[in-house]
Specification:
Shape: elongated
Radius of gyration: 29 Å
Strand content: 5-15%
Strand order of the largest sheet: 9-11-12-13-10-14-15
CATH class of the largest domain: Alpha Beta
Distance between the termini: 61 Å
CATH architecture of the largest domain: 3-Layer(aba) Sandwich
Number of domains: 4
Largest sheet: 7 strands, mixed
CATH superfamily of the largest domain: P-loop containing nucleotide triphosphate hydrolases
Length: 517
């Protein structure tokens, strides 16, 4: 049942007070007016600035104004006095439902009992939910969904039709470009989507599928206002990731999983991955690369921002952060070093009153139950700190083990970093450099190249392989100082996680011994 059908059913069933959570008052009002016209009912709207007026009354109009009804109690009296069937829309009534407004709460409760025997309904519209205990049994809560792809498509068609009269505006939207633009706009309200489409047209005098970054900038505003998640703008892509062929192939195959064709094919949106492995081997770089590869906004989930001093505030912060991520979906939620974020969750009761355990539980429940297309990219270094509940299938699609780069991968990493610094990789003996950097991580190779550049610049020489080899010889890689921990990590990952660089071997059935029985 869609929202409009459900709302109409509740109105027909004489539910007295309906509480619709939405920031889009006009969209909600249009739906209510449509239902009221169908049921032959009048519609009135109330706000603290206008009082009770017929729905759709212009803000400049004074014809139907009744200043006395600006007072909430007087407005509720107006509901009782109305004789004919009607629907009353109360906008932003939630500040009057807090504990101190006991007179209004009591009045609303008495009206609820009265409305059950009438053809009148009160509809409260607010962006947040505020329901006092006294009214919990009388109020029915509904969440108004954000615009669907079809709604955004209709809006886009209307805007394109409106700008056809301007010859200087160029509309360059094929089917693929339109799909990319609508995909990026999912999660915005109709007002936000209209603003960003208009901004693109005014700024560039054109509209094309390549304007998705402008749409992401609009989503960045939503995230910034929440104060809980960090919008992570990045130019990294898979071309800057050396090795990890299996992981990159897995992610490339899921790049099209958010399209309408994928839904028609029956594909569910991918849930997420956990990348486990040695520090500095490209886990965070991959998280940034996915954002560019999939053309989706990257949101960084910083667990440090979630913990508050008040009891229950940490869990509420996590729920709010998740709600923000879902509101701008499809998106990528990057949880960096998740092992440190939830370390000690099992013994949390003795250390922090169970706050970490409750926060972890909230996050785990969301991973299992989420339906919004939010792809989670979690990274971890220490498996001993990972709670076993996180590793269960169904919460994440796959666990990848990111090991130290092989000889070929180290050559590729040298090639990438030399090219990024304006050097021709073909002028360097990459095979010798890769051999000299055995047990080095990608981050350590990058740092060795930077160190060699400093040495060459100080000596007023051009960078050579000798400078890099010298820098490598002066570095003790982490893999040697933490040999036991890395060996333990490899042993754990064997059979439990997919290697991000090496494809799994296909097990062929052995020959069976034939016997006569």
């Amino acid at each position: 049942m869609n929202f409009q059908a459900e709302l109409e059913t509740l109105i027909r069933a004489r539910y007295p007070i309906l509480y619709i959570i939405s920031s889009e008052e006009m969209r909600v009002q249009n739906v209510v007016v449509e239902i009221a016209n169908k049921r032959q009912k009048k519609v009135f709207e109330w706000s603290y600035s206008t009082g009770v007026v017929p729905a759709g009354t212009s803000i400049q109009s004074q014809k139907h104004r009744n200043a006395a009804t600006k007072d909430p109690l007087a407005a509720l009296d107006q509901v009782i006095e109305q004789v004919e069937p009607a629907i009353f829309i109360f906008k932003d009534f939630h500040p009057f439902l807090t504990k101190n407004n006991f007179a209004i709460i009591r009045k609303l409760k008495e009206i609820a009992l009265h409305l059950k025997n009438s053809f009148k309904t009160i509809v409260l519209v607010a962006p947040v939910m505020e329901i006092p205990t006294e009214l919990e049994k009388e109020i029915t809560v509904l969440n108004y969904p954000l615009p669907s792809r079809d709604d955004l498509g209709a809006l886009l068609d209307k805007i394109i039709a409106d700008v056809r009269q301007f010859a200087q505006v160029k509309i360059d939207l094929d089917d693929a470009g339109r799909e990319r633009l609508l995909q990026a706009a999912l999660g915005l309200t109709l007002g936000e989507a209209e603003n960003v489409f208009a901004k693109i047209i005014v700024k560039d005098e054109r509209l094309s599928g390549g304007d998705v970054n402008e749409v992401f900038a609009e989503k960045q505003q939503i995230i910034r206002k929440s104060g809980l998640l960090e919008y992570y703008a990045t130019d990294e892509n898979f071309a800057n990731v050396g090795g990890l062929a299996v992981l990159k192939d897995w992610l490339n195959k899921r790049a099209v999983a958010f399209t309408s064709e994928a839904r028609a094919f029956g594909l569910p949106a991918p849930k997420g991955i956990l990348m486990l492995g040695v520090q500095g081997c490209g886990k965070s770089l991959c998280a940034k690369g996915v954002s560019n590869q999939w053309q989706l906004p990257l949101l960084r989930f910083d667990m440090g921002r979630m913990f508050g001093s008040l009891v229950g505030s940490s869990e509420e912060n996590v729920r709010r952060a998740i709600a923000v991520a879902e509101s701008v979906a499809p998106a990528i939620l990057w949880v960096d070093e998740i092992d440190k974020a939830f370390a000690g969750s099992q013994g949390s009761g003795a250390t922090d009153g169970g706050t970490t355990a409750r926060v972890f539980g909230t996050f785990l429940t969301w991973l299992s139950e989420k339906t919004a297309p939010v792809f989670v990219v979690a990274t971890a270094n220490d498996i001993s700190q990972l709670p076993p509940e996180l590793l269960r299938k169904g919460r994440l699609d796959e666990i990848f083990f990111v090991d130290l780069p092989s000889q070929e991968e180290r050559q590729e990493i040298f090639r990438i970093h030399l090219a990024k610094r304006g050097r021709d990789p073909e002028k360097f003996d990459l095979g010798t450099l890769a051999e000299a950097s055995r047990d080095f991580s990608g981050a350590e190779i990058e740092e060795a190249i930077n160190s060699a550049l400093y040495d060459a610049f100080y000596a007023k020489q051009e960078l050579t392989a000798a400078h890099i080899q010298s820098a490598l010889s002066q570095t003790v890689p982490l893999a040697r100082t933490m040999d036991e921990q890395i060996a333990r990590l490899r042993n754990w990952a064997e059979g439990r996680a997919r290697n991000a660089s090496i494809p799994r071997e296909i097990q062929k059935p052995g020959a069976m011994r034939r016997m006569e029985l």
